[in-house]
Amino acid sequence: MRDVxxxxxxxxxxxxxxAALVVVLPSEPDEVVTRPVTAPPAAPSSSGPxxxxxxxxxxxxxxxxxxxxxxxxxxxxxxxxxxxxxxxPGYTAMEALYADPRVPRLTGEFKRMSLPSPxxxxxxxxxxxxxxxxxPKPWKAYGPxxxxxxxxxxxxxxxxxxxxxxxxxxxxxxxxSARDTALLAARWTLNHHPKGAKISWLASQSVxxxxxxxxxxxxxxxTSRAAVVIMDGGMSKPGLVFVTVPDMxxxxxxxxxxxxxxxxxxx
Length: 267
Fold this sequence. Notes:
Blueprint lengths: L1 H23 L3 H7 L58 H6 L23 E4 L4 E4 L6 E2 L7 E4 L11 E6 L8 H12 L8 E10 L2 E10 L2 E10 L7 E8 L7 H9 L1 E2 L2
Antiparallel strand pairs: 1-2, 2-10, 3-4, 4-5, 5-9, 6-7, 7-8, 8-9
């Protein structure tokens, strides 16, 4: 009986040792699942090979080097405004005007023109709030588009040039002074003269609610007489009245004075 008990004790000891072995040595799959994953060191140890990084683990990026300072850009040359444009890039309206070789500076004193009495016959321009003198024959009213009112002289054989009187809301930027606005308007009227035309001033004076300029336009072997009147007719923009007569119709140059003297506010 004693031998039986001794055998059972030995068997129990063997079972306990096996159980201890299982506890001390856990299975490899459980260790892989439960162990927290840590990122490898940023740089490998000098005593071992480099470590590969698992796709599931992202390494912290190395700090970026400061970019080299960009060289300073050279100043931009804006050049000279192209003749015929209303406003060259980078220029104010008046700077573009003064840089235009077709339009001389308006300097010195001009004598006031002796203007005839205003005409009683007018065309009403309700877009500008202005009354425009209606000239007698050979002038005649004509389809105004793109202007508000338009009067023309008959065509002359051998040329497309002919006298014209038009009115419309100011087609250029209004300036602080009516005089500067009139200067810009005179430059704009070169769009309605032959290419290469140039201005020379004849008269400059204030008018009621605005300014008037009279000038000669030279183009090739010919000249034209022209004038602009800028006047505030109480609308959102001032009104422009423009008249031009080529030298082939010089008998009607006298009508330019009739136009500039007769423009007035409606009402």
